[in-house]
From TrEMBL:
InterPro entries: RNA_pol_sigma70_r2, RNA_pol_sigma_r2. It comes from Alicyclobacillus fodiniaquatilis. Gene3D superfamilies: 1.10.1740.10. This is Sigma factor. Residues 20-79 form the RNA polymerase sigma-70 region domain. It comes from the Bacteria. Pfam families: Sigma70_r2. The lineage of its organism: Bacteria, Bacillati, Bacillota, Bacilli, Bacillales.
């Protein structure tokens, strides 16, 4: 067996099974671009693993199983990220209320620094009495 035999086998399996793999992955993830990315990633994994471990007994099933597992991992990761973003959004609602009060205070402080405390007090008294 030549050192290039596993690569040739990957190439042959890819040529035969890539259309089926793409169809199954597209149906699974409902996004053709993502399906293409997953299929390409599985091809790279096969090119790395098969020369070391040997070609699988059922290479098309191996490619499909590996791609589906990658897709499931990606879906789970995206769901976790969505939950984290929602949690951050809920936490930021309270932060925005506080930060807007802080922003008002900062603006008044910067105004006070420019015009002096006495001028700020005069403005506040005029505004509050009128």
């Amino acid at each position: 067996m030549t050192p290039f035999a596993p690569y040739r086998m990957v190439d042959a399996v890819w040529r035969i099974e890539s259309a089926k793999l793409m169809a199954v992955l597209t149906r699974f993830v409902r996004d053709i671009g993502l399906a293409e990315d997953l299929a390409q990633n599985v091809l790279v994994i096969a090119l790395k693993k098969w020369p070391e471990t040997g070609v699988s007994d059922d290479p098309d099933a191996w490619l499909l199983t590996t791609a589906k597992r990658r897709a499931i991992d990606l879906i789970r990761r995206n769901q976790l990220l969505d939950r984290k973003y929602e949690e951050i959004g809920r936490n930021l609602k309270g932060y925005h209320e506080v930060s807007s009060k802080e922003a008002i205070l900062r603006k008044s402080m910067s105004f006070s620094a420019r015009f002096g405390w006495s001028r700020q007090l005069e403005i506040n008294q005029t505004y509050n009495s009128g």
